[in-house]
Amino acid sequence: MKFLTLSGLTKQDKFNITQILVILPFVLLCIPTSFNRRAEYHSDTIPNPMNLLWAIIPFAVVYALRVIFVENLFPKFGDKFIYYKPGWGPGVRKFRVKRFALVLFKGIYFWISAPLGILLFKHEDWMPKGLFGVGKQDLELLWDGYPFQEQSPMLFVYYCWELGYHTHSLVFHMQSEKRNDYFENLLHHLATIFLIVLSYCNNCLRIGALVLVLHDIVDAIMYLSKSVNDMPNQVPVYCGFFFIAYSFLRFRLITLGFDIIPAAINARNYIPEGATGQYVHWLLVGLLCVLWVLHAYWFYLIIEIIHNAIKNKGKLQDPHAVG
């Protein structure tokens, strides 16, 4: 990535950078307290932060698969799949083929990860109906017995799986060329990783799993829709944008904003009196709010794309794509 100067940054870039700079000191302040939580409570039910090192395995697997498929196999398929549009030069089509390979890889990943998360936790009584829960669907049970909750082994496995993937995404993002959504996605990657690590250390795995499942559902729909963006037949593209808009509204705005964030705020009633670093709870709530604001902004962009398509008689244009 080329060296960035302030003059080359948009107002949105500066806003996102400011958020990152505001969040980082609070995260650094919360890390010692969070990593010491197990010793503070003298309980084996509090997760051991060192167990997150197992995330190295899914990180390495996903990283290797991305190199194999995105840089070698999928571009060959995309070269046959992506047709030339009028006015495209060789550089534009090469970019679109590369982009197709990436979104196809991510689409396949999320179509594995999202159903996996639903299947693992749909019978848990704290899984809400909005995320396909079939148990009691009682969000109060997210904090039942907190902080001394015994978590299922699958929550630990799922956390390492997700941390490995999101760390791989951050590494690739840091190596990528700066685009118009670079700092938005950087903020999103950092907020997600901070949430995973801090929620794990503070035994907030249940609500953390809800946030991760929610994101994976939307990403599965979004990347599948993006993979057909350059098809000659635009009907799948129109359908894709409709489902992206619907999934963003239902899951990332309504479910996150009106179910999960209020449930996260409710944790304050279960934190033991005298516990150190109670500000960690408010940092976690703040990070969830940062994600919600990003999602609201992206939803606005989606609606803008659909509005422009109607105005331009059906021509859809992804603002994050070239050509």
For the structure shown, list the relevant keywords.
transmembrane; Lag1/Lac1-like; single chain; mainly alpha; TLC-dom; sphingosine N-acyltransferase activity; 9 helices; membrane; 323 residues; globular
Task: Describe the model.
With 323 residues, the chain is mostly helical. The protein has one domain. 67% of the residues lie in helices and 0% in strands. α3 crosses α4 and α5 crosses α7. The model has no long low-confidence stretch (mean pLDDT 89).
Rg, Å, rounded: 21 Å
Report how far the terminal alpha carbons are from each other. 21 Å
Q: Stretches where pLDDT falls below 50 for ≥5 residues?
A: none
Beta content: under 5%
Count the helices. How many?
9
* Count of folded domains: 1
H and E order = HHHHHHHHH
Mean model confidence by pLDDT: 89
The helical percent reads: 55-70%
The assigned structural class equals mainly alpha
Number of strands: 0
Shape: globular
Main sheet specs = none
GO cellular component, one term: membrane
GO molecular function: sphingosine N-acyltransferase activity
Keywords: Membrane, Transmembrane, Transmembrane helix
Subcellular location: Membrane
Quick summary of this structure?
This protein has 323 residues and is mainly alpha-helical. The protein has 9 helices and no strands.
Give the secondary structure arrangement, pairings included.
Layout (H helix, E strand, L loop, with lengths): L10 H25 L1 H5 L14 H26 L8 H32 L31 H23 L6 H20 L3 H23 L7 H31 L13 H33 L12
